[in-house]
Task: structure prediction
Amino acid sequence: MKCPECHTENPDTNKFCRECGAEFASVCPICGQTHGPADKFCGECGHDLIPGTEPEESPAATPRERRNVTVLFSDMAGYTFMTERLDPEEVKDIMQWILGEVSQTVTKYDGFVERVIGDAIMAIFGFPKSHEDDPIRALNAAMEIHSLVEGFSPKVEDKVGRPLYMHTGIATGLAVTGEVNLECGTYGIVGDSVNLASRLQHLADPGEILVSEQTHRQADGLFLFERLEPQKLKGKEKTVNIFRVIAPSPHRTRFDVMSERGLTPLVGRQRELQTLLDGFERIRDGRGQAFSIISDA
Result:
């Protein structure tokens, strides 16, 4: 490793330059993992390593809340095989890179990496930040995670002896935050959506993304799905409807989906519609218009 200050070559394990003493490795303040100066996120816990990006005021803990969230569980197929074939240091380097990229992908869609265990990651969409399209964000993140691992796989297949794939489960539903500690980056989410996402992840084959019925309902039209046979999952009294994600659809917004399926016509608003149409014609002639529309949501 070359020192950025005096350009002296140092062993990769050094934290400080042996010539000038400059520090050229960052240490995660949450888990203590060492990282290079260019790393933006911790490969172990997903913590943001860029100075100055933390909220100005971040309480140590927040009250528990009831939230509709989308939970994503993703696990690597081939991890156990890799640990048997490679040196532990090589495995750690590979997983540090992959989990760092996965964490950045989750953060890109305003999700939160709640837990990383070995080769598995649990992410939450909808807490602490809520969005109307959290299920869509989770699906986009899952597809990017699968793509980045499949793109990285050829670099290590000769060593590992088999391709690397992710398999993912996603579920949407009501959850309750447990012991919330923002300093440690833990939220303790509990609820049926957490358990269901975990079951779906274990059920998914390598390369598959399986989602719950509620996630499918909110993302239908923006993604193409294949409905699978209902399954009896552990801990569930009734069979569960499961959907496999095929690909994103050509539609970019929910309005595009509704327009294709047919919008519901307005009833009893002929005068208002005619006013808007007349105003549109005047706008086309170059005369500006302003309309105020007031109603219940």
Q: What stands out?
A: The first helix runs from residue 79 to 85. The mean pLDDT is 81. The two ends are 60 Å apart (CA to CA).
